[in-house]
Structures are given as structure tokens and as C-alpha cells.
What we know:
By secondary structure, the protein is α/β, with parallel strands linked by helices. The chain has two domains: 9-95, Arc Repressor Mutant, subunit A, CATH 1.10.10; 111-329, Vaccinia Virus protein VP39 (Rossmann fold), CATH 3.40.50. The chain is built from 14 helices and twelve strands. The strands form three sheets. Strands 6-5-4-7-8-12-11 form a seven-stranded mixed β-sheet, sandwiched between helices. Strand 4 (163-167), helix 10 (173-181) and strand 5 form a beta-alpha-beta unit. It is globular.
Amino acid sequence: MPDQDITTPAALRERVHQFQHSRVLLTAYELGVFTALGDQAQAAAVAAALGTDARATDRLLNALVAMGMLEKRRDRFVNGAFAARHLVRGKPGFMSGLMHSVHLWSSWSTLTKAVREGHAVTSRETGARGDTWRDAFIAAMHWRGAQQAPEVVAMIDLQGVARVLDAGGGSGVYAMAFARARSGLHATVFDLPEIVSITRRYVEEAGFSDRVAIVSGDLTRDELGRGFDLVFLSAIVHSFPPEENRRLVQKAARALTPGGRVVVQDFLMDEDRSGPLSSALFALNMLVATEAGDTYTEPEIREWMRAAGLDAIERRDTPYGASLMIGTLAAAT
């Protein structure tokens, strides 16, 4: 649906300048301002703790006050209620995944050039981006998954499911949600060699090492194994072009037991690709971040599933903007 908020030049200018709000928040998060404030502090003390310029830090803190993120008590700054709860490192509600948004700023700044050239113009391989980028990305996906996975997994019938493959499973947040959802279920996370060491840390910290196995491999090159009742592809197909996704869904189908299911979770586009807005923006996110990633329509994913021998294909929309496409491998006769 077209944006109905922009009806005047003033409204357009306001929308255009929202990047300034985003940059202030990301800079404060990146520097660790909210953590450095502690209970309360003067700008000079925050600057000393962070190694930043005192005058510039004062201006940043005052902007955060104006935005409602901080409070000012004479010459001292105090975290507002939301910042104290979610932006202070070490607090239970800390939003650890926001560093990935800091990194997205750099890739989105190349959008003009990416539209001209038709693909990302920054580092295109996850491994080439370094540990800092990779850790922040996994942390962001884990934080979001921890909020969403229990409800998403509850939308999938797990009756008779004993083995789940979470292909490209990152931190293992969904694999662990499957294990929590059904007693006796064992899950396997399959991901790149540079990712699985991070996966292992998350799984061990959660106490799921006995029920979540970890396998190193490359979705684009390696087979996924055999004997799984369900293969879960969450936030994966948007990273690849259509022909690669067709092959990936075929691999997933080969990994199933008869009667098993492939579940694709991703943002879906309307058939004419004009919406929804979140999916349209995510398509651009894939443009600036990948060689040929994209968002796809329901008919496209249905075609990949049919080509892989899956039928009884159905769609279920989650409360989080993404959808589940579920295809079933015919049972042996």
C-alpha cells in the first residue's frame, strides 16, 4: 500500500530527515553511551570513559535528551526508562542485536551505486566481513529469534516429528525452540564453518547440547544429510537467486523421510511486487548486501517446492511480517 503519510512537501522533508534520528541512536549505541552513563553522569565523565571529545559528547547527549532517550538533571544525564531497560549492556533486556543495524548503515549508504550496478558493492561474503560483523549479525538474529521463535514454532504441527534440521540456523535459536516445543525431539543446526563455533556457544549456554547437534557445511555446495522429519529454512532464501533456491529446496526435500516437510520462513512479496512495504524494503536490503539476494512471492516458492516433489503446499502468515511456506514429501506407498 502506498505511504499515505506523505501528502505535503513538509511531510516529505520530515521523512527524509529521519535518518538523523537513526544516526544519533546508532552512534550512541555503537559508542556505548547508555552503559557509560551508569546511574547518572556529566558529559565530561562520559567522554572520559568512552575516549570521545567532551564538547561533541555533550551535544550528542543533549540530542538524546531531546529525543526522549535520556533525561537531564542540571548538568547530569540519566538514562530514560526504555534506555535503562534495553540499551545498557548487562541488563536482561539489553538489545544486543543493534550493532548489526550499525553495520547496515554502511551497506545502505551504497544503495545508489547498487541500483546502478545491480548488486552489492560492499563485501559480499559473510566470512570476508570479519568477526565483528559476523558476531553482531548472529546476535541480532538471535535476539529477534528469541522473541519470535516460540510462537512461530507453535504454528507448525510437530506430531510425529523426531528430527528437525535447521538449515542455516545461525545461533540455533529456532533449533532450541523446536526442542523446547516437543519432548524427545532432536534438532541439528547446519551452518558455515565460521558460524558453528558461535552456534555452539549459544547452545551450550542454553543447556541444549544434548538435544541440538551442530554440523558444519555450505548450503550452496553440500548435501544436508538424511532422515529428517522436518527441514526448516528460516531467513535463508532471501540470500540467494531463484536458481540457487530451487536447488536448495531440492536438497531439503532429499533430506526428508517420507511424509516429512520443508518449512520456508521468509518475507513474501505480493505477486505484483508492489508490497508489502517491509518486504519491498528488505528486497533493497538484499540488493545492497548480497550478489543476487531478493524477496520472493508465494507462487515462486510454491514452484520451487513442486519441482522438489513437495505437495500439499500451504502458507501461514506469522505475526512478525514473515510467512511460512510448508510443503510435504509424499509418504512411501
